[in-house]
Amino acid sequence: MNFKNKVVLVTGASKGIGKAIASSFAKEGAKVVVNYNSSKDEALEVVDEIKKLGTEAIAVHCDVTNEEDIKKMIIETVKIYNGIDILVNNAGQIIRPGDSNTDSDSWSKTLDINIKGVWLMIKYAITHMKNGSSIVNISSYVGQLGSQYVLPYEIAKAGVINLTKAYAKELAPDIRVNSVSPGNIDTSMTRGAGEEFIQKTISNTPLKRLGEPSEIAKAVLFLASSDASFITGVNLDVDGGFMLTN
């Protein structure tokens, strides 16, 4: 998969899955826009790492719940790189407690970050994406199975899958739109659920481990590549078989 000189914008790219995605594209020659909200130092570290690979990168602040922030980030990206070839909507957050005890503010904020932000990013990015471009949205297995512990998050992630299919229809044949649903991946978000949850998850996963951020990145790169040129509107589970047994 050769992404040499392709311009890739990755939201939430300062750590975890987003960082792995940004770095993986860079290793294939892409120019990467590393979006961050609060983690500026980490984002600048990602940029430094990418530049050491011999390609270009910039860190851009943007709160994906803020429409004006998104407009500014798109404008800055286009001003520097003259367009966007690949958009990866990775930014997301679980606000705990996420069960029935969640409050209205947490509910609204969760949906704003995890689904409204995806919609807004696509809305403003597509006007700067050429024919043959690609969008990959990061959803989650909980958007399909449901979980009483992260109720607003799962609803948002289910929305991401449906939004993906809707945009795949609307933007065809010019832009392909797909999504990836990670299972339980070894990130700070997963670790934040506690050791008991992690051990139970591993026990319930056929491949008997957590996934690695790099494994999600590989799936994203495939869907964004010309190898997937006849694939659009698909949600790809990368979950170690978790969906099979739960």
Low-pLDDT windows of residues: none
Please identify the top-level CATH class: Alpha Beta
- Can you tell me the CATH topology? Rossmann fold
Approximate shape: globular
Succession of helices and strands: EHEHEHEHEHHEHHHEH
> What is the CATH architecture term?
3-Layer(aba) Sandwich
Roughly what is the average pLDDT, rounded to an integer? Answer: 95
CATH superfamily: NAD(P)-binding Rossmann-like Domain
Q: What is the number of beta strands?
A: 7
Number of helices: 10
Main β-sheet description? 7 strands, parallel
Distance between the termini: 33 Å
| Strand fraction | 15-25%
Biggest β-sheet: strands ordered side by side in the sheet = 3-2-1-4-5-6-7
Q: What would you call the structural class?
A: alpha/beta
In angstroms, what is the radius of gyration?
Answer: 17 Å
Number of domains: 1
Helicity level, as a percent range? 40-55%
Question: What would your notes on this structure say?
Answer:
This protein has ten helices and seven strands. The protein is of the alpha/beta class and 246 residues long. The chain has a single domain (7-245), classed as 3-Layer(aba) Sandwich (Rossmann fold), CATH 3.40.50. Helix 1 runs parallel beside helix 2 (40-52), helix 3 (67-81) packs parallel to helix 4 (104-125) and helix 4 packs parallel to helix 6.
